[in-house]
Design goal:
It contains 1 helix and 29 strands. The protein is an all-beta fold and 433 residues long. Strands 16-17-18-19-20-21-22 form a 7-stranded antiparallel beta sheet, with no helix packed on it. A 5-stranded antiparallel beta sheet has the order 1-11-10-9-8, with no helix packed on it. Strand 5 and strand 6 form a beta hairpin. The radius of gyration is 21 Å and the shape is globular. The protein starts with 20 loop residues before the first strand and ends with a strand. Bound molecules: calcium ion (4 copies). The site of one calcium ion has 8 residues, from strand 10. Pfam families: FG-GAP_3. It comes from Nannocystis bainbridge. This is VCBS repeat-containing protein. InterPro entries: FG-GAP, Integrin_alpha_N.
């Protein structure tokens, strides 16, 4: 049984780290030697874009493995990664966000979800066996409505910590790891509830900061970390359009070693990627570039899609342009400061959340996306040059529109989100195998 009696939550107020520890149930895993601390996984952001996709010839410098587009759904001939039947874990309510962190100190990333439920908000912990097996571990009550959860080593001790955004009233709950599955809890009040959170270094020092999307999606604000697990509200930056949490990312678009903001939003009938310059002090002000990428903004991802530059962008939109009906993934390959080459691929859709992970371990990031209506999870193999092959879809009901990939010896795809009371755990298989 999970015992949460020791869980301590300070009410919103100055962060108190003197609270008692929160312990995960003892398990053999706790006694295994810890591996070296791993760096905080960050798939942040990105950038933006170029030309109207339809008018933009593919100009990626390296040749693609295949000619343009093609992707329209299931295929039995592909050899890339496929998803098996999902296992379902009841959450008692919808999860609003998930984060991967080594909760028990065994060197394997575990899962923490921020969820709603009959008993109120909670952080729900699952221990990961490294093979895709998830064991429910603990449910830590959050005395407010959780809105987002992120993981990072916020006090620089080599242990993964968690931050949970909350509303009613707005606050940031911090769970600092003490090792062996124990956490110290604290909270700090915010002026505006965060609809989503990102972990990044935005003010030039070595400690991790947070970027929060204001409820309503019209502005971001920086929450500057002090390296000890406490936060100070930084600058507020208005966004060029109302932005969904899945449609914002951080990339260094102008290559000045400072992260910039990339957002995908709707402007009139266009979906536009806007790159906004970061000033290195936590403010994002000057528009660097604005690109129409189609119609119907869905999601924006930043990652090394072609080569090792790391600042390419992938925008998911409902259609390439007026009169077009198929959802499109617009890939923007970063060729230099503010230089992008665009190419589009048809994808199954419409899509909700998306993430990038090398599911088949061939060294190239693959796109994992959830249908906006929670009816499917799609896997689109990437070729490492900005190209994508045919999508493979696993359909089921009530999946939720959020996806995460749990890495380990076997990558595992997780689907959850509003509209679903469950966590769905998909094994990754080889198609046709
Ligand atoms: Ca672990
Ligand atoms: Ca830590
Ligand atoms: Ca920059
Ligand atoms: Ca791959």
């Amino acid at each position: 049984m999970i015992d949460t009696r020791d869980v301590v939550h300070a009410p919103p107020g100055p962060l108190s780290l003197a609270a008692r520890g929160v312990s995960l149930p003892a398990a053999a895993a706790f006694r295994r030697p810890m591996s070296a601390p791993r760096s905080v996984p960050r798939v942040l952001g990105l950038g933006l874009l170029l030309c109207d996709l339809l008018a933009c010839a593919p100009t990626i410098r390296t040749p693609l493995k295949q000619a343009l587009p093609s992707v329209t759904g299931d295929s039995s001939t592909a050899t890339g990664p496929c998803l098996g039947e999902p296992a379902r874990i009841d959450l008692g309510g919808p999860a609003v966000g998930g984060a991967l962190a080594d909760l028990d100190g065994d060197g394997v990333k575990d899962l923490a979800l921020a969820a709603l439920g009959p008993g109120g908000g909670a952080a729900v912990f699952f221990r990961h066996d490294g093979q895709g097996g998830l064991e429910p571990s603990m449910r830590v009550p959050i005395p407010q409505t959780p809105t987002a959860i992120v993981a990072g080593d916020f006090n620089n001790d080599g242990l993964d910590d968690l931050v949970i955004g909350a509303a009613d009233p707005p606050a940031l709950h911090v769970l600092l790891a003490r090792g062996r599955g124990e956490f110290i809890a604290g909270a700090t009040p915010l002026r505006v509830a965060p609809e989503a959170l990102w972990v990044a270094r935005v003010d030039g020092d070595e400690s991790l900061d947070l970027l929060a999307l204001d409820a309503g999606g019209k502005a971001v604000r920086t929450l500057l970390g002090d390296g000890h697990g406490e936060w100070k509200e930084g600058k507020r930056s208005a966004l060029p359009a109302r932005v969904q949490p899945a449609a914002l990312t951080l990339v260094d678009a102008d290559r000045d070693q400072i992260l910039d903001l990339a957002v995908l939003g709707d402007s009139r009938s266009d979906a536009v990627v806007t790159l906004v310059r970061g000033d290195g002090r936590g403010e994002f002000g000057k528009t660097l570039q604005r690109r129409v990428v189609g119609r119907g903004a869905r999601a924006l991802l930043g990652a090394p899609l072609a080569g090792d530059d790391g600042h390419d962008l992938l925008a998911l939109v409902d259609a390439a342009g007026p009169g077009a009906g198929s959802p499109v993934a617009a890939v923007l390959v970063h060729n230099g400061p503010l230089e992008y080459a665009a190419v589009g691929y048809f994808v199954p859709g419409p899509l909700g959340d998306a993430t990038l992970s090398d599911l088949d371990r061939d060294g190239d990031l693959d796109l994992v996306s959830a249908a906006a209506d929670g009816s499917a999870v799609h896997v689109v193999p990437g070729d490492g040059r900005g190209g994508f092959a045919q999508a493979q879809s696993r359909r089921a009901t009530g999946l939720g529109a959020a996806v995460l990939v749990l890495d380990g010896n076997r990558p595992t795809v997780l689907a959850f989100g509003p509209g679903s009371q469950q966590l769905h755990v998909f094994p990754v298989t080889r198609c046709g195998g």
